[in-house]
Protein 1
Amino acid sequence: MGRMTASPGRRVLLAAPRGYCAGVDRAVIAVEKALEQYGAPVYVRHEIVHNKYVVQTLEKKGAIFVERTEEVPEGNIVMFSAHGVAPVVHEEAARGKLATIDATCPLVTKVHKEAVRFAKEDYDILLIGHEGHEEVIGTSGEAPDHITLVDGPEDVAKVEVRDPSKVVWLSQTTLSVDETMETVDALKNKFPGLISPPSDDICYATQNRQIAVKKLAEDAQLVIVVGSKNSSNSIRMVEVALDAGAPAAHLVDFADEIDEAWLEGVTTVGLTSGASVPDVLVEGVLEWLAERGYGDVETVKTAEESITFSLPKELRRDLREEAAALVAGRKGTSAE
């Protein structure tokens, strides 16, 4: 670590809240607890959360990340990521004789349940989200015959429904609030009878971090968002900062990805991080900035967060024994 200094007029505005949300914290702890309780390996379908550092750290502890359920050898434990999975994935795990741990964020589970309920009531469901994102794939899988993906306002013109009086919108939890509402407004113009979900689908943490980054953008000439390139909520924060008037905003995984040229003429740097980012990475950026004269750090607080989620119920069972039983044929289905 280099010597920390502060040059006159140079400062960092540090967003609060930032970093881990309750769903990410729960998912990461779940992998650690599973490794501690059952021993390695514990397989995880897709990245548990979208952060390079977190995934690499868990791999060193014995987690194995796979893209497909079929890659997990029978008789093992597989964990489903915070982004959620479609029902077909649970079926794949049962066929593969795998014990399962479902680390889906409870806020994503809420959207899944909304999709199931509206599908049972025979609504057309317009799911606002990004094509190919794991969360969208999981939610769409709950009611594939009823869900149409709407990937932004530009998609609205081509949306067709069976009955304009029975249409509801849902959304991916990690989107830009402003862009989502722009899409909703366009949908309502086309379908005046469109109904909204009973509560916000965009998660509290995503909204809070976007509000905080808007506040940074009021005073910072440069906004740095710590987060991975495949993190939807982190990417949205960069976009929100630019839309809110920041002259420049960049996404980095680590401090050594910062280009010193970005600091030219900059007296105030705004710093925040995505909902899947541990604070150690933010501390690394603060040290990097301090070594270059930005040692004066002011916290900009826009919200309090106190939400926590209990760990997956499967961690209270002996999953190694259940997996062995599945292979031996003593049980016909995977753990609930």
Protein 2
Amino acid sequence: MKRLLITGASGFLGWHICQIVKPEWEVYGTYFSHSLEIPSVNTIKVNLTDFQELKDIFNQINPAAVIHTAAHSQPNFCQTHPQESYKINVTASCNIAGLCADRAIPCAFTSTDLVFDGLNAPYKETDLVCPVSIYGEQKVKAETGMLERYPNTAVCRMPLMFGTATPTAKSFIQPFIETLQAGKELNLFIDEFRTPVSGTTAAKGLLLALEKVQGLIHLGGKERISRYDFGQLLVEVFQITGAKLQGCRQQDIKMAAPRPADVSLDSSKAFALGYEPLSVQEELAALATSQDHDSKN
């Protein structure tokens, strides 16, 4: 079997990719601070910001393809720790592209919808980037740097993602559900719009991109939805009784990193290649069913 190297296997998306690629590939997943074991996956601790260590891993594994998901992906953290986040988000990403170029192997990179300023959605791949946060800026630098080093890189702009909690990572819906089930008030933005997908759908999109895409691709969902409307669907699908859901505006909440209002992605290019996200309601229903099934086992 061919070897696939996945960076950031302990992250939410990396873990979901590991789950779906195991039948096709011999999988090697890297982690750094959160050690974990994934059945049928070789997990290895690597400091991706140490170029020698990174090079050694490529030489040891000799991968046939790479999916690079490892990052500091919390915008507020990047805003307050710009140098630390730059090392992994930009420098390591460019080095990975260079190592893939040396071997002429497929490389998929996870960028973000936050490369846009949120004023002209929905965004196509051809639209100009204009990030408003340091995290967005770093992802733009990584996109540019990786494509300069290796034009064959599939640069995948990912939307907001949700799904089952993994052994070492949660998605944003777990704290939402806990807050609502505890009978506490949950404030969600009525004026922030995204095109969310589940972690499983995003993982399938990345595999498709690894196989078929060189350059930029958007892997957003089929619907543009506000955080508040998403919360309402969550309450409905998970049947949370007495949920206290409150709408608020972005300006009401103080955060370190500025947030764009609407970074909905136009992903018609990916849909034409066979990328098939479900509706948000269907994605949530599938999650609710699998969690119900897990709690009964």
Protein 3
Amino acid sequence: MSSLSTSASSLATARGVYTICPTPFHADGGLDLGSIATLVEFQIQAGVSGLAILGFLGEAHKLSNAERRAVTATFVKCAAGRVPVWVGVRALGLAGAIEQATEAAEAGAAAVFAAPLDMASDAVQFDYYKSLAAALNIPVVIHDFPDSFGTEIKAEVIARLGREGGVNFIKMEEPPVGQKISRIRDLAGESMRIFGGLGGVYFLEELQRGAVGTMTGFAFPEILVRIYDQFAAGDLAGAAATFDKYCPLIRYEFQPKIGLSLRKYVYRKRGVISSDAIRSPGMRIDPETERELEAVIARVGLDLNQRGALVIQ
């Protein structure tokens, strides 16, 4: 297992697999705080380096402010310092972002990952992230996902934030991911630590380009941990073989519009959460899709009904 202290000083060496966790709901749509406890225990058993909450997969945009606070507090309490908890932030302006991030920090979050401002210029984006970082006593992670946010953060702005803005982490999800990772590294050097994402579809290539890990919601995180551990140990052939073996499942699970439903279905079937309910708006999967998913899982040699984290060879 990749271990990591939650102290701010240790975050300078943050790396590995940070699972983006779904927010569990009961069948009636109410928060299921009890399932957060079982979800956290499962992730720790799987060997993840950290937890990321209240992103798209966490349905943060469907929660009230009080629910956001309850979810954050419960994840932090259940993690109990064993792994850091990073919290998503998205607001229309700096004041709202500072409010969300400050609440997360006060609840015990180790970092926040912040979406860019909508339709803002390069100069405004730089000032936004720099000001957010200056207002907090925990690190800020840039969330670079233009396909969902509709806003591109240029490599030059990212590098400048690393060198001058006090922002030294990015969750980078802009294809082609390899080229942008290389560009950021060329411009920023060691001042910007890059995590990949996009469901883990390009995880191996991200690591080869210099990413320090991934932040994604893949519902078999122990597979990603195995790939990372093999790569970090210098076993590139082993990491590639593991990645190639499970690529059909990684690909199938990371489907636009229904990825959240697929992942919640997997977690429910694995006994990690009590219900696969999602809040509206959101697309549910049908019985045929469930059968397809289960067939892919079986095809790569996994047992969906086995409880607890799997030992990945």
Protein 4
Amino acid sequence: MTRQKRGPAAPLARPPRLRPGSRVAVVAPSGPVPADRLEEGLAILRDWGLDLVIGPHVLSVHPELDYLAGSDADRAKDLQAAWCDPSVDAVLCARGGYGAHRMVDLVDWAAIRAAGPKAFVGYSDITALHEAFALRAGFATLHGPMVATDAFLKDPAAREHLRATLFEPETVRTLGLDTAAALVPGRARGVTFGGCVSLLAAGTPGGRTEARGGLLVIEDTGEEPYRLDGILTRLLRSGALEGVAGIACGSWQECGPYEKVRAVLADRFGPLGIPVAEELGFGHGYAAPTIPLGVPAVLNAPSDGGRCTLTVEVPALL
């Protein structure tokens, strides 16, 4: 039997943009959420003019595994209930941590698909859900700051970029910080996919078997260079990057001296013969831009030392 190819060849369904009065659900698919940080984040969302609904288990803590925000079943139930509520316009994650991989197969993805696309925001551990929304529902999502994290509460630039993406997506189509440069020069077009690279390498049932037609966007935190080497090697050997058109690299917070990280990226990706841009800044670093996943984009990594950019060809939201 021929293995079914799963990759980002076609753009995914984009959700409607938010407006003042839009109803937004906040859920915790991964780690437990401190109540004070949640309240601080909710106050900001209310200042944006949003009507909020909070998942019943957002403040739950698993009775034995205290690194989880309640049971796998409850976390999956909160996500599915929020998505399938026709009054909810967007679903925002409260934080990452660990646990999305544990609950992703408990979600009824047919019901999610039937409910249609909505804005979905998160990063880090939420990468597992970005992949599921792409591959199981066919929906574009947003790799961006979460409601109860420093990236949202203490980073005005990252927070404002997310707000603009949600409300005025046509204003933030060229992505990447001024630090961006070409690791391997060139220009590529494709559909964006990716996130936290260690989560991508971990894989999920029904995951990608190739990347033909795709632009990979990756970042991570707390992975030393030798561990990052192993992560990238596993990803390459899995075949999940087969046919990838280009690679955009974000932040590598607490991954060791950047010159060593750069050496790993160059060693693992250089032989692919495709454009690779570095230091676009999305991910766990300060002032990280929100990156749309599942939309057509152009990666420009000029050889003359000019600024690299990732430009989405359409607004992230309709």
